[in-house]
């Protein structure tokens, strides 16, 4: 702080010394804005306005011009612009002490003043010849004009013939129409836009305005085509018609659309006549008018009535005509159809459409079309009874005329009768035509024989030997349960299944209505088995995987095979190791198939089943079992550990390995969970080292999606969970 004060004192001393070297003389110049108002200068005293830069140049020294400035380090005491005078008669002035110049000024030399307004960058300059003497040069008039200059606005007027045209500036709609005066006017490219005219000039470039300006556009109408549509509406006198939009009026007149500058026909649409008188109706109402109804006048063969010609630059007029006619006709006679529905009290019937209700009443139709025709169905018969006929179909011939014209009557009657069946519920019946010892007993439901010629359904298995067959009708809605006692090896009900004899089997048929079934008896082989296998076995590969092989002697109508695996001989809990069915070849020659199961652990025994699948049936073969053998470490671990899966992360459709060491005397499981905590796969681990190979599939063989998974070791001495990731 002391150093800055010292420098200031030195600077003041130096300036004072410098000024003492030259003759001191002040030049004060009064200033104002071009409007005569005071400039925006508020500082007083020995200060200079921060909004201006002031230069003073001494022209005359033999060594060249000399310039001082408020931005060049010149002290405000020697050069400034400030407010001077006494209130309220303040004014703005520039003030320069001529002693500030390096060279001693002389009368006759020139001082050039330069004042710049910093915000607008506007500059004002003037000069004065130094007069003789040493007194203050105080110039009050003329007053020097300094910036900022006042803004002068000029107007731009746009006119056109015809008027009312949209005005565009720089290809953008201004929202104004001619004539219009823009105040202030702005430079740009102006034009009026109306495609129906050609304009002279097409556009006008307006520079920055220096005076009020008017530009004008002259338009010439461009000849255009026109379209006229005429619709003649014909009908009885005294009636009105209502068409699309605002079209309405009396019939027997022509309604016009146009002339339009574009091909628009507003007459197209529905035309509706006023109400017909009592006892009459309109043949068609409304009449829908379409564009295709209009044709040209008689003077042209090309569907255009042309007036004028393009050869002389004139427009072309198109005239199209159409006619619609409303016709009244007398209402037809009335029609009445009565249907009397008789039956036991308390029953209901359901007929065509919305007809429904109790029996023993009359159902009536009063339209020319008889909606009573069709099936009439009654509710369920009483226990121990059935309907003689249900539904009853009503046909036109059932109706007969009464004394009144166009009234017709019909009657239908629903009748119950006691049930009688060939195979009544609870009775054991010898099957007619079958050898002795073949009986059927219904414990739930009844059945009847189906008479007439009988052609047995052919079996899929050519080894099946047909012995006897009988078609039956299962009466009612089901389900039906019955017991068959047979002397045959096989019982086949096509579409429902195969049962093994001889002996008694109980069969249930699921609910339908009056189901027809066919029972076949035979021997030799399952009639639905489409494949004859000669071999199914499991062997170990060199890598201690399981190779499964099967051989078919013939295949007919077979979809394919699936293989299932379990660590016990329980087929019900076995899982598929073939997510996609292995397709069959369906040939009569020997075919061999095999797959390799690599998801096995050394020291474990596995059971396998083979499923042969056709369209409506599948047959299991097996099981076959195999013990997976390999090297066993001679020394069991002292404690149980689970190493990190490797690789981790691993890609979908590849594998990762989990190494688990289980101490002597323990066993446990390793389970893989998804992010929702659902078990995806479970492995059993035994004492010793266990190398688990997971291929990214769940226990059903489905490929798991990418994401985070957890694998957990559970043994009596250890519970440990780790994370792994499947990536795409």
Q: Can you summarize this structure?
A:
The chain is an all-beta fold and 728 residues long.
What does this structure look like?
The chain is mainly beta. The chain is 3% helix and 48% strand. Strand 34 and strand 35 (407-413) form a beta hairpin.
Can you summarize the main beta sheet?
A: 5 strands, antiparallel
Tally the beta strands: 61
Strand order of the largest sheet: 39-40-45-42-43
**Which percent range describes the beta-strand content?**
over 45%
What structural class do the secondary elements suggest?
A: mainly beta
**Unreliable stretches:** 1-20, 298-313
Helix fraction, binned, reads: under 10%
Q: Compute the number of structural domains.
A: 7
How many alpha or pi helices?
1
Q: What's the topology here?
A:
Layout: H1 2-21, E1 26-32, E2 52-59, E3 66-69, E4 79-84, E5 91-97, E6 110-117, E7 122-129, E8 137-145, E9 156-161, E10 166-169, E11 172-177, E12 180-182, E13 188-192, E14 197-200, E15 204-206, E16 213-221, E17 226-234, E18 240-242, E19 248-250, E20 253-260, E21 269-273, E22 280-282, E23 287-289, E24 295-296, E25 317-325, E26 328-330, E27 336-342, E28 348-350, E29 356-358, E30 361-365, E31 374-378, E32 385-387, E33 392-394, E34 400-401, E35 407-413, E36 416-418, E37 428-430, E38 439-444, E39 446-449, E40 465-475, E41 480-486, E42 490-493, E43 497-500, E44 503-509, E45 515-523, E46 531-540, E47 546-555, E48 558-566, E49 575-576, E50 582-583, E51 591-597, E52 605-614, E53 618-627, E54 641-642, E55 650-651, E56 656-662, E57 668-673, E58 679-685, E59 688-694, E60 707-715, E61 718-727
Parallel strand pairs: 1-8, 9-16, 17-25, 27-35, 55-61
Antiparallel strand pairs: 1-5, 2-3, 2-6, 4-5, 6-7, 9-12, 10-11, 10-13, 13-15, 14-16, 17-20, 18-19, 18-21, 21-23, 22-26, 24-25, 27-30, 28-29, 28-31, 31-33, 32-36, 34-35, 37-38, 38-41, 39-40, 40-45, 41-44, 42-43, 42-45, 46-47, 47-51, 48-49, 48-50, 48-52, 52-53, 54-56, 56-59, 57-58, 57-60, 60-61
């Amino acid at each position: 702080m002391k150093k800055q004060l010292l420098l200031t004192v030195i600077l003041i001393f130096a300036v004072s010394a410098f000024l003492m070297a030259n003759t001191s003389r002040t030049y004060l110049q009064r200033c104002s804005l071009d409007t005569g108002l005071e400039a925006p200068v508020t500082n007083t005293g020995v200060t200079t306005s921060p909004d201006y830069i002031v230069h003073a140049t001494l022209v005359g020294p033999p060594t060249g011009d000399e310039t001082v400035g408020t931005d060049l380090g010149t002290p405000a005491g020697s050069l400034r612009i400030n407010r001077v005078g006494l209130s309220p008669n303040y004014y703005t002035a520039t003030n320069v002490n001529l002693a500030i110049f390096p060279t001693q000024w002389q009368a006759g030399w020139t001082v050039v003043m330069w004042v710049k307004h910093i915000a607008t960058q506007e500059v004002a300059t003037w000069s004065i010849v130094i007069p003789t003497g040493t007194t203050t040069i105080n110039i009050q008039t003329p007053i020097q004009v300094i910036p900022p200059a006042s803004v002068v606005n000029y107007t731009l007027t746009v006119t056109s013939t015809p008027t009312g045209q949209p005005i565009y500036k720089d290809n953008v709609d201004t929202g104004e129409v001619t004539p219009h005066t823009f105040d202030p006017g702005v430079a740009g490219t102006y034009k009026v836009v109306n495609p129906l005219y050609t304009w002279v000039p097409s556009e006008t470039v307006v520079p920055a305005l220096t005076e009020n300006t008017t530009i004008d556009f002259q338009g010439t109408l461009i000849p255009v085509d026109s379209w006229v549509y005429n619709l003649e509406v014909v009908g009885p006198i005294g009636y009105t018609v209502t068409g699309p939009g605002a079209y309405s009026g009396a019939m027997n007149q022509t309604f016009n659309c146009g002339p339009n500058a574009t091909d628009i026909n507003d007459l197209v649409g529905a035309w509706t006549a006023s109400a017909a008188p009592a006892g009459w109706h309109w043949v068609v109402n409304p009449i829908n008018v379409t564009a295709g109804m209009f044709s040209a006048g008689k003077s042209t063969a090309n569907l255009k009535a042309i007036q004028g010609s393009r050869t002389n630059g004139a427009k072309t007029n198109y005239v199209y005509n159409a006619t619609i006619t409303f016709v009244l006709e007398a209402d037809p006679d009335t029609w009445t159809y009565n249907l009397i529905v008789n039956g036991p009290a308390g029953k209901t019937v359901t007929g065509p459409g919305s007809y429904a209700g109790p029996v023993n009443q009359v159902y009536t139709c009063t339209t020319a079309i008889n909606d009573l025709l069709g099936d009439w169905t009654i509710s369920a018969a009483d226990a121990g009874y059935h309907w003689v006929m249900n539904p009853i179909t009503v046909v036109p011939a059932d109706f007969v005329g009464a004394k009144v014209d166009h009234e017709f009557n019909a009657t239908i009657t629903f009748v119950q009768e006691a049930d009688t069946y060939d195979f009544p519920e609870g009775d054991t019946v010898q099957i007619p035509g079958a050898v002795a010892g073949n009986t059927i007993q219904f414990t739930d439901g009844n059945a009847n024989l189906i008479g007439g010629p009988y052609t047995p359904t052919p079996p899929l298995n050519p080894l099946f030997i047909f012995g006897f067959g009988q078609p039956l009708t299962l009466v009612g809605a089901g389900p039906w349960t019955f017991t068959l006692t047979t002397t045959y090896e096989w019982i086949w009900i096509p579409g429902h299944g195969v049962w093994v004899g001889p002996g008694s089997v109980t069969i249930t048929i699921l609910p339908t209505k009056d189901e027809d079934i066919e029972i076949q008896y035979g021997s030799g082989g399952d009639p639905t088995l489409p494949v004859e296998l000669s071999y199914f076995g499991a062997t170990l590969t060199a890598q201690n995987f399981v190779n499964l092989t099967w051989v078919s002697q013939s295949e007919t109508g077979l979809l394919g095979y699936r293989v299932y695996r379990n660590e016990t001989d329980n087929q019900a809990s076995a899982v598929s190791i073939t997510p996609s069915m292995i397709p069959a070849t369906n040939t009569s020659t020997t075919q061999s198939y095999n797959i390799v199961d690599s998801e096995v652990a050394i020291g474990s025994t596995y059971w396998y089943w083979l499923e042969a699948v056709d369209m409506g049936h599948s047959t299991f073969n097996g099981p076959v079992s195999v013990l997976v053998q390999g090297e066993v470490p001679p020394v069991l671990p002292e404690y149980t550990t689970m190493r990190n899966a490797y690789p981790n992360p691993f890609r979908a459709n590849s594998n990762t390995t989990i190494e688990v060491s289980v101490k002597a005397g323990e066993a446990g499981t390793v389970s893989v969970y998804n992010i929702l905590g659902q078990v995806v796969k479970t492995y059993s681990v035994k004492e010793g080292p266990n190398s688990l190979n997971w291929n990214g599939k769940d226990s059903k063989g489905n490929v798991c999606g990418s994401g985070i998974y957890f694998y957990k070791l559970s043994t009596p001495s250890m519970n440990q969970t780790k994370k792994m990731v499947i990536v795409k």
